[in-house]
């Protein structure tokens, strides 16, 4: 009898695990299909409590499979991986974005170039003869400009190794004294309601400070970042003046951003 009871208990646990796994697969399928999950609606549709769905979302978020937001979840950005990993994601898209961004810089301008893989593509496509001033908090960007005619101003501070950029008090203080014509900003997520996001609070503060001093904010976002979100908000999407994104970006997403006053350049 005791063995039978133990067997039934183990069977119940196995069924519960299967049901949980099925729910999670369903949630990920909805996220891929709709681009978001509303916990209340999903719970009602499945005849389950919101607590059950929220628990599933917490566990999926812990696995890095989605980003929890108020009331549900959004796709998690793959752009929070290591630098080596990010170099292999959307390389063609980033090259097209970098080429277009580089063409926007005019002689005599002072522009701030963010760190990251897309920013490096901007540098790769910059005219070596261009006479301008490039400000950056990325030692990689600064080093890549060593054989260019541009003047380079490198912002120092604490090195955030994930993105290879300077952050912290010293960097923020230096940024407050610069008024660039354009800030070419990289992000890990661009979403109409979640806004511009990234995966680190200090990096978010740095990007926000630069955006606040720049005359024009140009956001460079490869396709995997569109509709995705990360933990830390930089600014609302409406703060963006120009969004440079790949030609293959979903037209509905572009229309959403345009409706919010963003000039979307699909390149």
List keywords for this structure.
single chain; 267 residues; alpha/beta; 7-stranded parallel beta sheet; 15 strands; 3-stranded antiparallel beta sheet; elongated
Q: How would you state the average pLDDT, rounded?
A: 87
Largest sheet: 7 strands, parallel
The total of beta strands comes to 15
User: What are the segments in which pLDDT stays under 50 over at least 5 consecutive residues?
Assistant: none
Q: How do you describe this structure in short?
A:
The protein is 43% helix and 20% strand. It contains 10 helices and 15 strands.
Describe this structure in words.
- The protein has 267 residues and is of the alpha/beta class.
- It has ten helices and 15 strands.
- The protein has helices at 2-34, 39-46, 50-62, 83-87, 91-103, 117-124, 139-144, 169-175, 201-213, 251-259, and strands spanning 37-38, 67-69, 72-74, 110-113, 133-136, 151-154, 158-160, 165-167, 182-186, 189-191, 195-198, 217-220, 232-235, 242-245, 263-266.
- The strands form four sheets. Strands 6-5-4-9-12-14-15 form a seven-stranded parallel beta sheet, sandwiched between helices. It has a three-stranded antiparallel beta sheet with strand order 1-3-2. Strands 10-11-13 form a three-stranded antiparallel beta sheet.
- α1 (2-34) packs across α3 (50-62).
- The radius of gyration is 22 Å and the shape is elongated.
- The termini are far apart.
- The mean pLDDT is 87.
